[in-house]
Amino acid sequence: MKKIMSMLICTIVALNVGFAQQQIAPAKKGTQYGKKIDAQHAISVADLEKSLQKSENFSGKIMGEVVEVCKKKGCFLTLKRAGGETVMVRFTDYGYFVPADIVGKKIAVEGRAKMKETSVEWLQHYAEDKGASKAEIAKITKPKTDISIVADGVVVLN
User: Fold this and answer.
1) CATH fold of the domain at 2-156
2) Which InterPro entries does this chain map to (predicted)?
3) What is the mean pLDDT of residues 57-74?
């Protein structure tokens, strides 16, 4: 009986984790994730880049187009940047997640941005979460310095 109960509990937990992405509200205009925010005074990703050339940190609102989302549970997203690069957006204390259907949407985030070096291990972890193959992950051998945003809230703009 104990084994059956243990297996039942494990199954329920596994199903909840497996379907976590389905429990997140779809990305429709005006949908909020995390702290409630609006897009007033939000700057573009290009303006953020210029700001970080002058100062180490930025606090405020940034808007951009979502390029990718963590495929496992929506625990991060990337914003489009000129030249094909992207900006990593993680969420404060992993307190909320975003749906996969947010890709291609214009959003605003409110939080803190800075230039950050990401280790090889974390780059490989992010690649795995994006669904990269083992061969693609193995090609990641050097850390990368890039813009990193920790967002308190996200709002879908379109």
Assistant:
1) OB fold (Dihydrolipoamide Acetyltransferase, E2P) (2.40.50)
2) DUF4920
3) 94
